[in-house]
Amino acid sequence: MLDFTKLKNIIDNNNSFLITSHVNPDADAIGSEIALYNVIKKLGKEAYIINHSPTPYNMAFLDRENVIRHFNEEIHDDLIYSCDVLILLDLNQLNRIRNMSKYFRQEDKVVVCIDHHEDPEDFTENLFLETSYSSTGEMIYDFIQQTKIVELDLSIAEPIYAAIMTDTGSFRFERTTPNTHKAAARLLDCGVDPKHVYMSIFDDNKFERLRLMGFAISSVKLHADGQICYMTITQKMLEESGAAENEVEGFVNFCLIVKGVKIGLLFYELKNGIKISFRSKVDIPINKLAAEFGGGGHYHAAGARIYEVEVNEYVEKVLKAAERYL
Q1: Residue 10 DSSP SS3
Q2: For the chain, does the N or the C end have fewer beta carbons within 10 angstroms?
Q3: What is the average per-residue pLDDT within 182-208?
Q4: How far apart are CA 156 and CA 255, in angstroms?
Q5: What DSSP assignment string belongs to 153-206?
Q6: Three-class secondary structure assignment of 11-69
Q7: Contact 149/39 with Cβ under 8 angstroms?
């Protein structure tokens, strides 16, 4: 377990905080942000959450007070520069916050990073990183429990539960530990309704997402004697379905439910490049494959973004590279 004493001291000794996370935030990102924001506000301090990407509609219920702001440099520049501490959650590479990264490269600012992914970029001495955690949300939970900085209540417990539940694949992924379940039990004691959280995130999809899912599944192909399964999502599919970019979240996991498949890949055509999602079963370090294409992540789940290229340029390259990991 990490020693969070230094993090508590940073919060105790400063008055204003900017919190952000990666582009296209998932429930671990949003949940961790809301939880930490509420911790800081309970201490009577100023806190702001500003994200590069808008909040996905199925996670908006976590932001009950509508405190998350969508980044606009003209509007938020002075506010961000005025904050004493800048906090990154659920990422450790500054390119994942795009043009917000300039604020985190200031030498005269206190910059904090709290994360559970591998291969961190060296941009702050205040790095709280432990890859054995199931989620950043579980790290926030341990921070609160270890330091006793505030009392847990529903406003903190619900977003942490959402973070843990989603990043553990509903408590089925390998980094789901006894401590993870103990944390979940304590969060339920605070009044979290697990059915409400699950249904809000997974069972309240827009029809457009379902249409896009159909296009994605129809694109599925097998490679390497059925050991690699991949799908492709194009801008045309996005346009025809009417879905938003962030609604592809989780689609890559369909590639892993095919019998005999060890590696699942999703190639997603962006307006200015491609996004590749990597997943694996058994003893395959898929983050190492992602790193070959400028990405990173966890042992069994990773991603990469490549700009100013076409999807067709990279499908064969990635498939060929993936074969070496079988």
Answers
A1: helix
A2: N
A3: 97
A4: 34
A5: -HHHHHHHHHHHHHHTTTTTSTT--HHHHHHHHHHHHTT--HHHHHHHHHS---
A6: HHCCCEEEEEECCCCCHHHHHHHHHHHHHHHHCCCEEEEEECCCCCHHHHHHCCCCCEE
A7: yes
Bridge partners (DSSP) of residue 280 are 263
Which CB contacts under 8 angstroms, 24+ apart, belong to 121-129? 121/92, 121/93, 121/94, 123/94, 126/6, 126/7, 126/10, 127/92, 128/2, 128/4, 128/6, 128/7, 129/92
Assess contact for 302 and 296: CB atoms under 8 A: yes
DSSP letter for each residue of 249-307: TTGGGGGGGSTT--EEEEEEEETTEEEEEEEE-TT--HHHHHHTTT-EE-SSEEEEEEE
Q: What is the pTM of this model?
A: 0.92
Report whether 226 contacts 260 (CB < 8 A). Answer: yes
The H or E element containing residue 239 is helix 235-241
AA letter at 163: A
Instruction: Give the chain's mean pLDDT.
Output: 96
Domains delineated in the chain: 5-202 (3.90.1640.10), 207-323 (3.10.310.30)
Q: Residue holding tokens 């989780």?
A: 250
Which one-letter amino acid corresponds to residue 3? D
Distance between CA 225 and CA 245 in Å, rounded?
31
By DSSP bridging, strand 46-51 and strand 16-21 are parallel
Residue 126: CA count within 13 A, CB half-sphere: 20
Q: Compute CA distances 82 → 44, 67, 90, 255, whole Å.
A: 17, 18, 23, 45
- pLDDT tens profile 283-313: 999 999 999 999 988 899 999 999 999 999 9
Half-sphere exposure of 154 (CA within 13 A, CB side): 6
Q: Which residue(s) pair with 129 in the sheet?
A: 115
Decide if 35 contacts 154 (C-beta within 8 A).
no
